[in-house]
């Protein structure tokens, strides 16, 4: 029983080697290190031929897959299988370094680093709510190639001053490639293996891997000049980066087709079609150049033998040399946007971002028994530029998107199945430039780079018996963190009976009726999003850590630490896309512009770390064994209400992916909540009783009766991981040393396949689980639900990454 990952083999292998030494004695030295790794891991989820006790429902049948493949072949499209898929993940690293002595007081370093890594992604969902079974060709791979040449020059002066100069280039090439080049085809209406419902089959290029490239060139020039002066050590320096980017994200550019059933697919009658293309002549890719100039001064002052103070000031100046070019139709609507953007929708440039900081270390009695340390400062980090690059892509001049509903889709045939030339218009002729482009991304006129205010205070105490106790508190507040709103939503129309802020109403079919602003950006009925990147300074976190360390003898040592922490934010950014961060960054029931910080998806309140090492006192050969244990709270999550085909947008803001459930005081009270019979399943009354029972069994819900669920107020199960390593020295070969190393990662999973596994309530990175399905609404707009208790049987399922299984690594180290 258990996750299918535990029923399959992983095949990792790794080779490391390094060599170094003098080229010219006392003048020139070299060092080379290389690492090659091959790894193959089975994809998560069900597959044809799986063991009957896999614990994952088998949805698809081989007969349906054969029929689907035959239809694909008739259009000249690639086919796939329903068998187990293995994801290979090769990696290669190379590091090369040359050191030269220049005169008597200078040193020149030349270094080069190359990394190559492939991460193949494929999995199948075990969900029985809206099941879609992917054929083996529906995967994709992340391919990363990085080269980093650099030059460092160190100089020591006679007065004790020194200088360090660094010039480097970081050349990064990332590609997200689908396994096959073809449109994405999804066909529904297949009867599942259990005969209890239907499912869909999917084949072709994954939607978001169709035309996906990121090229980055990052030049760095850093110089630090340090001057000793009495008890002061003063550093004056500069760090400058020049960043050039090419970001191609042409989602759906091969075509994305949906069909209600196999017969419709065979006859070329699609229920939905989506494609993207170039709106202008400048290409779809976002291209821009940015520089960040950093200047700083710092003083490290040994004020007394027992007290050290470090303080300084830094200023960073981000400069954009390019600006996004918006379509005239976008610029014409700027005056209607709610955030007061600049007239030309430009990215702010040339802002001075100040960063004062100070830190101290105080040996209270000068005997290294009591130590107090701490500091505070304002820090500017380099942001993920992809959040700004969205404005260079989604501006009405580059990426355009056409979406066609049932009755208005192009005919599917061999010509339209050509991924290189997909249709860019619906059956009625509307297409790029006349329908929504999918989204428009803009940046507020005062939006700044994110900064962090961080302070810490710690106390270390050396106790008897060589025991060291430490306690440390850390507080972090985001200054100018990013926050996204959809400016194409109107002001709220009011609140419903439960206090949910509403942007429209629900019709009797359960669909929202949203009063969009209806800009004429890309035609007379543009209902897409205008996503505005703004700042918020309300994000914060804090932690308190206690630690005990002890060296019991020369043979063994141990430590134990416990951390309690809390993290709150307005939105949790988990995606590179503006629309995704707005959709999934937070479930909310307040106004979308509300900046009240609530529990973050990254909140892990409890964490325990225990480590120990022991060296056996053999006389000739050493044997070292070490353990490390990590236990931590699971990821928080929120229960949502949703529904098939877009139903269940409870606040009518245009998406059903961010609406937390209302928790009734009594689910059987129809004035609070209404249910609808499930065909062949429980009645409305039975569902109401079951929902009441479910709420009573979940403490995070039971204490919120009569309220809309607070964001991330439930917590996934506790997580346990134990790693172990053993190193055995072997007989020497002359003066050269030989050692055998065995490492076991996730030992708990080796002992029992149910241990050492991360389990989530369907949350993944978004931390949400759809609990209630909206199937209709009353004439007054009150949603009518279905609560399928069968979906709760495997509610906490293991996530689909190999870290949920143990890994044994064998290594041989040769030192000479």
Structural description of this entry:
With 816 residues, this protein is mainly beta. The chain is built from eight helices and 46 strands. It has a 22-stranded antiparallel sheet that branches. A six-stranded mixed sheet has the order 7-11-10-14-15-20. Strands 37-44-43-35-39 form a five-stranded mixed sheet. Strand 33 and strand 34 form a beta hairpin. The longest helix is centred in the C-terminal third of the chain and has 14 residues, at 684-697. Mean pLDDT is 87; it is low at 1-7 and 520-525.
Summed up, what is this model?
The chain has 816 residues and is mainly beta.
How many helix segments?
8
Q: Indicate the mean pLDDT.
A: 87
Shape: globular
Q: What structural class do helix, strand and pairing data support?
A: mainly beta
The amount of beta strand, in percent, is over 45%
Taking the sheet with the most strands, its summary is: 22 strands, antiparallel
How many strand segments? 46
Low-confidence runs: 1-7, 520-525
Q: CA-to-CA gap between the ends?
A: 48 Å
**Fraction of residues in helix:** under 10%
Question: What's the gyration radius in Å?
Answer: 30 Å
